[in-house]
Write a structure and sequence with these properties.
The chain is an alpha/beta fold. It has two domains: 29 residues; 140 residues, Glutaredoxin. It contains six helices and seven strands; from the N terminus they run ααβββαβαβαββα.
Length: 178
Amino acid sequence: MIKKVIAAVILIVLLSVAIVQALEKKADTPKESKTSMEENQGLKTGVKAPDFELKTLTGETVKLSDLKGKKVMLNFWATWCPPCKAEMPEMEQFFKEDHKALEILAVNIDPQLDVKGFADQNGITFPILLDDKDEVNAKYHIISIPTTYFIDSKGIIQDKFTGAMPLEAMQQYTQDLK
């Protein structure tokens, strides 16, 4: 009986030492760096947009770097997202306006759902890209949807909009792109 009590006391002491050391080690680590804090908020303006290659609903391949020389409105969305659904009609209206030097790309982050059915039901004709491996979503550090990046003709992110975007904002942000 005494052996069991001594073994339990030793085990508790060792566990306590391990916890104290872990807490001290955590306190000694430097504060979160600005870079990792920025990653938690998504990509910032002024940086080169990460390149990617995704398939559209029709099976075509779209590579961002192939669009160099054009302005790009890059939208991240999901079929289950109410704000995403709310902005889709205005994105479609914006797409139908005459934009020769602008590409609209809508990256869907839930391709396992019926994205084509959603697009057909809502009359969406702009390119919808399927991020089936969640790679582009991760590259762009998307933490909230919808999120839209505005990329200039040199491939630099000039602006970012989080939330359902009204038509007027789409027009203004793309007009400001060079």
